[in-house]
Amino acid sequence: MGRRIAVIGAGATGLTCIKSCLDERLEPVCFERSKDIGGLWRFKEEAEAERASIYHSVIINTSKEMMCYSDFPIPDHFPNYMHNSRILEYFRMYAQHFDLTRHVRFQTAVRSVKKRPDFSRSGQWEVVSVSSAGQEQSETFDGVMVCTGHHTHPHMPLHDFPGIEKFGGQYFHSRDYKSPQEFQGKRVLVIGIGNSGGDIAVEMSGVAEQKSEPNDRTQLSNERSESVSQDLNPLQVFLSTRRGSWVLNRVSDNGFPVDMMYGTRVMALLWKYLPFSLLNWIGERKINTRFDHSLYGLQPEHRLFSQHPMVNDDLPNRILSGRVQVKPNVSEFRSASVVFQDGSVEDRIDVVVFATGYTFSFPFLDDSVLAVADNQVSLYKYVFPPALERPTLAVIGLIQPLGAIMPISELQARWATRVFAELQKLPLEKTMLKDIENKKKAMAKRYVLSQRHTIQVDYIPYMDELAAQLGVRPRLGWLLLRDMRLGLQLLLGPCTPYQYRLCGPGQWAGARRAILTQWDRVAKPLRTRVLPETPRPSTMPVLLKLSAACLLCTAASLYIHRYPPLFIQNPPPFIQRFVPNLG
Ligand code: NAP
Q1: Which of 58, 327, 298, 295 is nearest to 188 (CA)?
Q2: CB-based contacts of 564: which residues, under 8 Å, 6+ apart?
Q3: Ligand 1 centroid to residue 188 C-alpha, Å
Q4: What percent of the chain has pLDDT over 90?
Q5: How high is the pLDDT of residue 541?
Q6: How many angstroms separate the alpha carbon of residue 358 from the centre of ligand 1?
Q7: Which residue puts its alpha carbon closest to atom 37 of ligand 1?
Q8: Residue 411 near ligand 1, beta carbon < 6 Å
Q9: 3-class SS string, 181-201
Q10: pLDDT band (50, 70, 90) for residue 229
Q11: What pLDDT does 231 receive?
């Protein structure tokens, strides 16, 4: 074992950092504030201070083949979209398999991380931690990996909601929402249409239908209880959004997971070369065939790919059956009612859930190391603070991808640990700053201006970018020649994380097999009533096939035009007989 690395947090990201340290023969010491691993994905009945908190029913919106660690496939019988308890089970299996938990100091919080006086020479850090018994300890580390996530601090923009102080009902942030039972029979308003807002509105609308007894409402004002007794069906969930949203489906064409159908390299090629507006047009047409977003009051002004994806299979159904009503932004709260920006008023709102997202911060770090302003940070490839004299601190998992976080965190961790081990170097500060600047500009150009769009990355381009740093980017052309079956899967099939274990440092012998059997693992949990044939997806939807074919033909003709092959420059006589002008 070599240099000591402090890993802060033992969630999905911290675990893979521990493993990456071990792979590079570094010595990890992981500080975990709570009693157990799993971070955000470990459900607790009560939200705990300084810890992310999820609701009981959360089902992840990325499929198992796309979200797993690259050298540890999720068991084939696990469902494709997993409940949080299954995800935790998978993390436990990962930790056990690679023997990671022995490196974790539980119930130990990091209080401060400071440069040592000789930092410019040694690159070392002074880490002060405190145990649950209050015992403080100061230690020196050669590197630090910050894995504290970005869903811990609720964004509660009460100043944007005039009159909230007069509101007599209950209100809270989605972080404190656990399950719908206690809201039976209430009239609920959910503000914000991210994935939390969508999930909570759908779930609450399942219980809000039951008729409430006036006794349940003794705490309400007279005005409120009086109107309840007059109303025959007072129960409802309202979902308020200030700009609408496009809604995607987990279940895609022929019932396959949406991220596997569209998270392909050929799709990434289209992304690179087709105009953004055309891509949006294709995507919007496609999702509007499921339900028309303007008919359902959800249509935003921005384009499909200008927002972080909202994935919800049940929301259209709830809107169509009237259980959820979509409303514009709130303009004012009154004691028992809410006025919306279109002038409509909803009386007797009992509960308001602010599903308004999260902000992040690093209270244990000095601003001179990493400053957060308006929910933005300056990190080279979202990992390294560019101005450090020595690259010995990395922030891992501080990204919001169009796809799963875990494999991205893993690739970041693999890269960072190789930099810590001095097997790789970072470019000059000015090059890093330029890269950061370009990324910020590209994000601002593409996404709607919002505090939630500050760390967005696209899954394949970003993974490839990291993989290129690390030397593990799959060599597609070479693979197509050498192992066509695998090469075609890489090009046309889903870009599953195993692709980044085919070559280079950290190569895994099981990667090829994992790629070739990925659709079997998709099918396995569905074969509960076995039929003679297991269907596989046609590798690409028709529209994409056409676009891909056009793109490939154009690329091929451009290439041939520029570098005419020998047989075209000097065609053999029998070809000249048929195509006389070819040469
Ligand atoms: P989010 O994605 O940040 O969405 C916040 C919502 O609140 C947006 O609609 C935002 O509108 C709105 N909002 C924020 N400030 C507002 C204001 N002042 N007035 C009105 N509206 C305001 O937060 P989230 O839904 O909690 O999701 C957080 C992360 O967890 C995301 O990465 C999400 O994908 C993930 N998540 C995943 C699952 C799952 O896997 N099943 C479930 C829940 C969450 P604007 O867009 O206009 O800013």
Answers
A1: 327
A2: none
A3: 18
A4: 81
A5: 58
A6: 8
A7: 195
A8: no
A9: HHHCCCEEEEECCCHHHHHHH
A10: very low
A11: 47
Q: Residue of the nearest CA to atom 13 in ligand 1? A: 356
pTM score of the predicted model: 0.89
115 ligand 1 Cβ < 6 A? no
Superfamily classification of domain 4-152+359-522: FAD/NAD(P)-binding domain (3.50.50.60)
**Nearest residue by C-alpha to atom 33 in ligand 1:** 195
Which residue lies with its CA nearest to atom 2 of ligand 1?
194
User: Ligand 1: which atom is nearest the Cα of residue 451?
Assistant: 48
* Residue 215: band (very low, low, confident or very high) from pLDDT cuts 50, 70, 90: very low
From the number of C-beta atoms within 10 Å of its C-beta (0-12, 13-18, 19+), residue 18 rates as buried
**Domain coordinates of the chain in residue numbers?**
4-152+359-522, 156-210+233-356
C-beta of 250 in contact with ligand 1 (< 6 A): no
Q: What is the pLDDT of residues 92-141, one digit of tens each?
A: 999 999 999 999 999 999 999 999 999 999 999 999 999 999 999 999 99
Q: How far is the centre of ligand 1, averaged over its atoms, from the C-alpha of 192 (Å)? A: 6
- Mean pLDDT, rounded, for 439-459: 93
Confidence of residue 574 (pLDDT cuts 50, 70, 90): low
CA distance 515 to 347: 55
58 in contact with ligand 1, CB cutoff 6 A: yes
Residues in CB range of 130: below 8 A, 6 or more apart = 108, 109, 111, 136, 137
Cβ–ligand 1 contact at 327 (below 6 Å) = no
Counted residue by residue, the chain has a size of: 583
The whole-chain average pLDDT of the chain stands at 91
* pLDDT (0 to 100) of residue 177: 97
> Do 4-152+359-522 and 156-210+233-356 have matching folds?
yes
- The CB-side HSE value for 582 (13 A sphere, CA atoms) comes to 18
Whether ligand 1 lies within 6 angstroms of the CB of 34 is answered as no
Residues 6+ apart with CB under 8 A from 578: none
Cβ of 60 below 6 Å from ligand 1: yes
Closest protein CA for atom 1 of ligand 1 = 357
The protein residue whose alpha carbon is closest to atom 11 in ligand 1 is 192
Q: Which atom of ligand 1 is nearest to the CA of 197?
A: 25
Among protein residues, the one whose CA lies closest to atom 14 of ligand 1: 356
The CATH homologous superfamily for domain 156-210+233-356 is FAD/NAD(P)-binding domain (3.50.50.60)
Alpha-helix runs per DSSP H in 421-534: 429-446, 459-470, 476-482, 484-492, 511-516, 518-523
